Amino acid sequence: MKHIPIALQMYTLRNEAEQDFTGTLKKVAGLGYEGVELAGYGGLEARKLKEVLDHLGLKAASSHIPLAELRDETEKVIDDQKVLGSRYVVCPYLAPEERTENDYIRLINDLNEIGEKCAGEGIALCYHNHDFELTSLSDGRSALETIFEETNPEWVKAEFDIFWLTFAGEKPAEWLERYKHRSPLVHLKDMTTDGERFFGELGAGGVDLESVLSFGNGSGTVDWWIVEQDECRNPPLQSVKRSLEFLKK
């Protein structure tokens, strides 16, 4: 069975990291996570951050970089990933004013252009979904389908978020199977079953985790499972500990 390492998306611990970035990384390592997906570098230069991660025994699984930064500072983003030892950079989010059909056309062009540059340097660009990309465009396709059908699969990969796919009424395993050769990163999240469909620790029961995890040990190309919980009802460190314990069972 293929071993797929588990990373934590640091956005989950954004409040803790804002107070003590290095100390929070130390706690993540202490819980047993093998890597982190970065959402900012805590004010550190990439080289210093790499020293911190190495000292803690953590890998930089990937980095979430805002779209404007990906567009305007592509070379610096690539150089930072090389220093960090990260093979993946992720376009994480589109602001509400960036979601018109024309915006998606521009996004596709940008992803192809940025992705080609990244691929030429041994870095893979991934696109991370929420639920809004599942709305239909004028040709009947969803925005998410259009993004992956109109981008070059050699240049643009997927980071599917299984919570948001489920929230939008989709089956995450079907998306993973459809794009199994383009899905190196998967955001593992669960959903409460109390009617609110709120973010829950893994094992909460609202997302079909079993089919997703089974996919990882099948014909897919998953390199990292990445735990994220956008909002936590329990203390966030307690939540990410529970999610990791669930996966290790």
Calculate Rg over CA atoms.
Answer: 17 Å
| Helix fraction bin | 40-55%
Strand order of the largest sheet: 1-2-3-4-5-6-7-10
> How many strand segments?
10
Shape: globular
What amount of the residues lies in strands? 15-25%
What is the H/E order?
EHHEHEHHEHEHEHHEEEHEH
Biggest sheet layout: 8 strands, parallel, barrel
Residue runs with pLDDT of under 50 for 5 or more positions: none
Structural class: alpha/beta
Q: What distance separates the N and C termini? A: 15 Å
Number of helices: 11
The average pLDDT value, as a whole number, equals 97
Polypeptide structure, described:
- GO terms for molecular function: isomerase activity.
- This protein is α/β, with parallel strands linked by helices.
- It contains eleven helices and ten strands.
- The protein has helices at residues 14-19, 21-31, 46-56, 67-72, 74-84, 101-120, 143-150, 162-167, 172-178, 209-216, 236-248; strands at residues 6-9, 35-38, 59-64, 88-91, 124-128, 156-161, 185-188, 190-191, 199-200, 224-227.
TL;DR?
43% of the residues lie in helices and 16% in strands. The protein has helices at 14-19, 21-31, 46-56, 67-72, 74-84, 101-120, 143-150, 162-167, 172-178, 209-216, 236-248, and strands at residues 6-9, 35-38, 59-64, 88-91, 124-128, 156-161, 185-188, 190-191, 199-200, 224-227.
